[in-house]
């Protein structure tokens, strides 16, 4: 779960081209469900959802939500029950409010408020406030930065960067588009771009793993949806894979067909025509 949460620091700005705000690649009602595996063990699921537009501090705001939970088997040694709420103005110029709640192994009730009049951001946990810190112009929070990333036009060797703050620090995150390739997943075949974020400012398990790397595959169309994320860190390897609609609440049930390729029981894999690209199969 912390794997996909860390991905939210992947960013875009600078040398990239942003989509016009009146033609965003996402809208209210979108829901993306990922299954997370630790090595070969189905560990849990992460859901990204866009709720109806709300008003926050007199601003019309998108309401982005991420929920994460581990499966019962994993609950025994690392229980995760997390919810993140992020509010960003509908022009996608910066964050307004960020909330993070967890009732799992490490309980938290975090609120991060962005005060653009004063140019500062303040972090609190269970009501205990830290001193405000300066904001970089156009800063996003760790969840909304994921949606800001989707505004960028991608291409090989594109450099992505933008400011992001969790209330405790404000940094400029960076990522690079490596190449274009086709990926074969349970949910389908996708024409994608491979993006590798710079993990220098991401803490937790990545901070403890100097050689840690992360790879993210996003669709090469105008929606730029992440379909697979891979990371190898000190405690093992993780894979988060986009699941098809209708399989949101199922734990992973894998079988092998006569070709030896892992397939989901009862699932027909649709094929999407792809351009001439490199090919990768999980």
Describe this protein's structure:
- By secondary structure, the protein is mainly beta.
- It has helices spanning 2-7, 72-75, 144-149; strands spanning 31-38, 41-56, 59-70, 81-89, 95-102, 108-115, 120-125, 128-129, 133-134, 159-165, 170-185, 188-197, 213-219, 226-233, 236-242, 254-256, 262-264, 278-281.
- The protein has one domain.
- It has a 16-stranded mixed beta sheet that branches.
- The longest helix has 6 residues, at 2-7.
- The radius of gyration is 19 Å and the shape is globular.
Entry summary:
By secondary structure, the chain is mainly beta. The protein has helices at 2-7, 72-75, 144-149, and strands at residues 31-38, 41-56, 59-70, 81-89, 95-102, 108-115, 120-125, 128-129, 133-134, 159-165, 170-185, 188-197, 213-219, 226-233, 236-242, 254-256, 262-264, 278-281.
């Amino acid at each position: 779960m912390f794997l996909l949460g860390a991905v939210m620091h992947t960013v875009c700005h600078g040398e990239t081209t942003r989509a016009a705000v009146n033609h965003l690649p996402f809208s209210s009602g979108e829901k993306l469900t990922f299954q997370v595996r630790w090595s070969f063990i189905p560990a849990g699921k992460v859901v990204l959802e866009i709720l109806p537009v709300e008003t926050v501090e007199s601003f019309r705001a998108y309401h982005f939500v991420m929920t994460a939970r581990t499966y019962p088997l994993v609950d025994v040694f690392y229980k995760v029950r997390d919810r993140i709420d992020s509010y960003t103005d509908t022009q996608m110029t910066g964050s307004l409010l960020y909330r993070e709640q967890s009732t799992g192994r490490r309980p938290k009730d975090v609120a991060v408020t962005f005060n653009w009049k004063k140019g500062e951001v303040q972090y609190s946990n269970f009501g205990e406030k830290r001193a405000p810190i300066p904001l970089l112009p156009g800063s996003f929070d760790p969840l909304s930065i994921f949606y800001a990333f989707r505004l960028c036009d991608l291409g090989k060797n594109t450099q992505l960067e933008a400011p992001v703050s969790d209330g405790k620090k404000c940094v400029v995150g960076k990522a690079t588009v490596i190449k274009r390739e086709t990926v074969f997943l349970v949910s389908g075949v996708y024409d994608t771009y491979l993006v590798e974020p710079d993990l220098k400012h991401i803490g937790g398990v990545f901070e403890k793993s100097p050689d840690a790397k992360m790879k993210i595959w996003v669709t090469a169309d105008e929606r730029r949806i992440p379909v697979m994320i891979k990371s190898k860190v000190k405690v093992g390897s993780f894979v988060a894979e986009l699941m098809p609609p209708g399989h949101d609440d199922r734990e992973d049930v894998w079988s092998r067909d006569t070709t030896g390729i892992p397939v989901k029981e009862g699932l027909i894999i649709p094929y999407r025509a792809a351009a001439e690209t490199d090919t990768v199969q999980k």
